[in-house]
From TrEMBL:
Single GO molecular function: metal ion binding
One Gene Ontology cellular component: ribosome
Domain ATP-grasp: 267-454
This protein's UniProt keywords: ATP-binding, Ligase, Magnesium, Manganese, Metal-binding, Nucleotide-binding, Protein biosynthesis, Ribonucleoprotein, Ribosomal protein
GO terms (BP aspect): SOS response; translation
Record's protein name: Probable alpha-L-glutamate ligase
Family classification: In the C-terminal section; belongs to the RimK family.
Cofactor(s) required for function per UniProt: Mn(2+); Mg(2+)
Native source organism of the sequence: Algicella marina
Taxonomic lineage of the native organism: Bacteria, Pseudomonadati, Pseudomonadota, Alphaproteobacteria, Rhodobacterales
Amino acid sequence: MDDTQFDKPLTLGWEEWVSLPDLGLPALKVKIDTGARTSALHAFDIEPFGPAAKPRVRFTVHPVAGRDDIEVSSSAPLLETRDVTSSNGETEHRYVIETVIEVGGKSWPIEVTLTDRSSMASRMLLGRQALRPEILVQPSERFFQPELDYDVYLKNRQPAPKRALRIAVLSRENNYSTRRLVEEGTKRDHVIEVIDTTRCYMAINQSAPEVHYDGKRLPRYDAVIPRIGSSITAYGTAVVRQFETIGTYCVNSSHGIGTSRDKLAAHQVLARNGIGMPATAFASSPKDNGNLINLVGKAPLIVKLLESTQGKGVVLAETQKAADSVISAFRNLKANFLVQHFVKEANGEDIRCLVIGGKVVGSMKRVAAAGEFRSNLHQGGAGEKVRISKAERETAVRAAKALGLNFVGVDLLRGEDGPKVLEVNSSPGLEGIEGVTARNVAAELFAEIEKRVQLRAPRRKPRR
């Protein structure tokens, strides 16, 4: 803090307007009481979180007295817990935080305890411990300093606080992507917790829907990053849907994840939105094999399981006879599949575009291994730098938007008549794209999460 700002005394009355910018509270009426030692801020839903070495506390504030429909969510480093005795002799165990207060063009750090002041006329009490020696208090007067306005809450004009978030990563694997999300989120001062999706279970009821884990109710998360494996798509999307019911921001929606995993549904959505893709056909009856093949053109063609991933369950049929055999084999296994035109001009290459928040943040060309038509890195393909065209960029963004996904890998083929969407992956890996592009894609994702979550405060509930 710059002490030169206190080259002149600051005069306060017994009531003043202040700002607590680090908590996202740009306008707050406070009572100044030199008879009280400790400062107190009205808060509820108070919850400590984070590692023991760097504890934090998050809480919600009703900044406008009498307006419980307006809420601001905040968090701050936790200094300690302390027993505080009120003027009526009652002792309460409170969390203590440090934050910056601004009043009359001056600012300084103060310690504040968190407590329920809903029955009090003022949302905050400023005790003598928070008053610097240069501050003069006139207990018979009020509002010596410029008055502020609650309109910043009512019109949602106030800047969102930069606060630590509690974020869950739904993942069953300790792989590169999971580790990078934990590493980058922690670096940005958030608390990242990895949750095994299959160990979650849900209390589904109207009044208090909950998600439980290992015998305990999970805490409130500011955001959830779903990393749902294809083998647990149905259960994983149910867990994400439960978080959505609670009101947690989920990076990818349960509907978007489910649709992207169903190749038939995904292609139907893409077609409905006029997005280019290889000619695709689907049928149920084995009597339709010939007509099915004719719909996508002559061999060679691709036969793809509806829930294939990482190139598994994708077969290249080089002749009509081979195609008929593969289709018959899949039908005998009672498997659902698509038949697609094989884009020869792609020459065993595709483009992976990583889209975050409606923007392509990185792209790479994937080249199939010798003798292989699948360019997936999991199938031995290699990634390399690539410059994508405006049309390719727009196609990737449109595909992500059509499926309602905010963090997605869109795989494109370079066809003679423009880019064609091959696949949309709602749980894209980070290792390949970060290695090839040297971009911090994990940081881009957290920047998007921070923007989305911060924009959700203050929250206004319907008034009763």
